[in-house]
Specification:
Elements: H1 11-17, E1 30-38, H2 44-57, E2 69-74, E3 77-83, E4 87-95, E5 121-132, H3 140-146, E6 153-157, E7 162-166, E8 176-182, H4 187-207, H5 210-237, H6 243-285, H7 296-390, H8 397-434
Parallel strand pairs: 5-8
Antiparallel strand pairs: 1-4, 1-5, 2-3, 3-4, 6-7, 7-8
Length: about 425
C-alpha cells in the first residue's frame, strides 16, 4: 500500500534541480579551463554530436538526447558540459601543476582543434590554477609572471581559506586567468571557488552584451526626446497648428520607440538578471582585503557597475519615452477629437438651417400649389357651369365659380394635411421597427 499520494509529474525533476551542476572537487595542485559560448537553438544537435565524438574517442558514452548537463572522466582529465538558455559551458579539470605559468593548461589535454570546432561563438574563456600558498604573501614578481605585468585584482576568500588573483583580461591565447592560492581548502571548497570565479566572468560578459545596444540606442533616444519636446511645445503654444500632421509625427515617433523597445528589452532584462548573479557569486566568495590590492567587488563597482548603469539608463529612458509619447499622443488625439466635434456641430447647425429654409420653401410651394390647384379647378367649374347654362339651365356662372373656390380650397388643404399625417405615421412606424 503506497504511503504517499501520487507524485506530481515534476516532483523529482524539481527536487533534483537544486543538486544540478555541482562543483568539481579539486585537489591542490590542479588546473582548470572553462569555455562559455553563445549558441543558436539550431546548433544544439551539432553540439551534442561534437561532445559525443570526444567521448567516443576516449571510450566513453556521450550525453543522452535531450540532456542539459554531462560530466565524464576522459583519460587523465575530467570533462563537464552544461547547457543554459542562450549559452553553453565546457570545463576541463586536471591534477598537477605546470612549470610555465598558464602554458600547460587543462584545455591542452583536449584533442587538437576540438575546442575551435565547438558550435557557437566564444563569450568567455578562462584558465584557473589551484596551487599551494607560498610562505607569506605572494611576491609581485610571481604575480607579474602569472599575469604578464597587468594590474592584479585579488582578495582573501572563503573566510581565509584561499587567496584569489586575476586581472580580468583576455590574454594572447584568448583566455582570462585566475590563480587560487590554497591556504586551507578542502577539495570541494576549491571546486566551489573556481566555479564561482568562472561564473563571475561568464555572467559579467553576458550582462555586458547589452552595453553595445545601449550605446547604439542612446544617441537616437536623445534625438527622439528632443523631437518630442519640440512637438509638445508646438501643441501647447500653437492652437491653430495642423493637428493631423502633428498626430502623424507623434505616431511615427511612437512606432520607432516601440521598435527600439522590442529590439532591446530582452537583452536589457537579461542584463539585470546576470548582474544579480554576478553580485551573488561575489558575495559567496566572502572577500577580505589584501594590502594595496583591489578586491573583486571593488573592481566590479568601479568598472562593471557603470557599464550596467548605462544599460539600465537606456532601458529606463526608453520606457519613460514610450509613456511620454503615449501621453502626448492621447492629449493631441483629444484635441483633434474636440476640433472634429466642433466641426460636426457646425455642420449639424448648417444642416439644420438648410432644413428650416427647405421647410419654409416647401410651405411656400405648398401655398402656391393650393392656389394653382384652386385656380385650375375653378376654371373647370366655370367651364362646366357655362356648358350647363348653354344647355338651357338658368345658372349664374360667376356665382357658381365664386362658391366653388372656397370649397375647392378647403378640399385641397384637407387633402394635403391628410397626406402629411400618413407620411408622418409611416416614418414613425419605420423608426420603431429600426429600434
Amino acid at each position: 500500500m503506497p504511503m504517499l499520494p501520487p507524485d506530481h509529474p515534476g516532483r523529482l525533476a524539481l527536487s533534483n534541480e537544486v543538486h544540478a551542476r555541482p562543483p568539481q572537487p579539486l585537489e591542490t595542485p590542479s588546473r582548470s579551463s572553462c569555455l562559455a559560448v553563445l549558441i543558436d537553438p539550431e546548433a544544439r544537435e551539432r553540439e551534442l554530436a561534437h561532445i559525443t565524438t570526444l567521448c567516443v574517442n576516449h571510450g566513453v558514452n556521450g550525453p543522452p538526447d535531450g540532456a542539459s548537463q554531462f560530466s565524464a572522466t576522459l583519460g587523465t582529465m575530467d570533462f563537464k558540459w552544461e547547457r543554459h538558455g542562450e549559452f553553453s559551458i565546457y570545463a576541463v579539470f586536471i591534477s598537477g601543476s605546470s612549470v610555465s605559468p598558464f602554458k600547460e593548461t587543462a584545455a591542452s589535454r583536449l584533442p587538437d582543434g576540438w575546442l575551435a570546432d565547438v558550435p557557437g561563438t566564444t563569450l568567455m574563456a578562462a584558465h584557473a590554477k589551484v596551487v599551494a600558498a607560498p610562505e607569506g604573501a605572494p611576491g609581485m614578481s610571481l604575480l607579474t609572471a602569472q599575469f604578464d605585468g597587468n594590474i592584479v585584482i585579488g582578495s582573501i576568500v572563503g573566510d581565509g581559506a584561499a587567496i584569489v588573483y586575476t586581472d580580468f583580461r583576455v590574454h594572447a591565447d584568448g583566455f582570462a586567468r585566475f590563480v587560487v592560492f590554497d591556504m586551507a581548502l578542502t577539495p570541494r571548497q576549491a571546486g566551489r571557488i573556481v566555479q564561482r570565479l568562472f561564473e563571475i566572468e561568464t555572467y559579467r560578459m553576458l550582462a555586458l552584451l547589452a552595453l553595445p545596444i545601449a550605446r547604439q540606442q542612446l544617441p537616437r533616444i536623445v534625438e527622439i526626446e528632443s523631437a518630442l519636446a519640440e512637438l509638445t511645445g508646438r501643441i501647447s503654444q500653437d492652437q491653430h497648428s495642423d493637428d493631423e500632421s502633428l498626430l502623424r509625427q507623434l505616431t511615427r515617433l511612437a512606432a520607432e520607440v516601440e521598435s527600439l523597445l522590442v529590439s532591446s528589452q530582452f537583452r536589457f532584462g537579461a542584463c539585470r538578471a546576470y548582474v544579480e548573479l554576478v553580485t551573488a557569486r561575489i558575495d559567496e566568495l566572502r572577500e577580505r582585503r589584501l594590502v594595496s590590492v583591489q578586491t573583486i567587488e571593488e573592481f566590479m563597482s568601479r568598472r562593471f557597475t557603470p557599464a550596467v548603469a548605462t544599460c539600465t539608463t537606456a532601458s529606463q529612458r526608453l520606457h519613460d519615452l514610450s509613456e511620454r509619447v503615449a501621453q502626448t499622443s492621447a492629449l493631441l488625439s483629444t484635441r483633434v477629437d474636440i476640433a472634429r466635434e466642433r466641426q460636426n456641430q457646425a455642420l449639424l447647425a448648417s444642416m439644420d438651417r438648410r432644413a428650416k429654409l427647405q421647410l419654409r420653401l416647401q410651405q411656400t410651394v405648398e401655398g402656391l400649389s393650393v392656389a394653382a390647384i384652386v385656380y385650375y379647378v375653378a376654371g373647370l367649374v366655370g367651364y362646366g357651369a357655362t356648358a350647363v347654362q348653354a344647355a338651357g339651365v338658368n345658372l349664374d356662372v360667376d356665382i357658381t365659380v365664386g362658391l366653388a373656390i372656397p370649397l375647392v380650397a378647403l378640399f385641397v388643404i384637407s387633402a394635403i394635411r391628410r397626406t402629411k399625417r400618413r407620411i408622418a405615421r409611416s416614418e414613425a412606424g419605420l423608426s420603431t421597427q429600426e429600434l
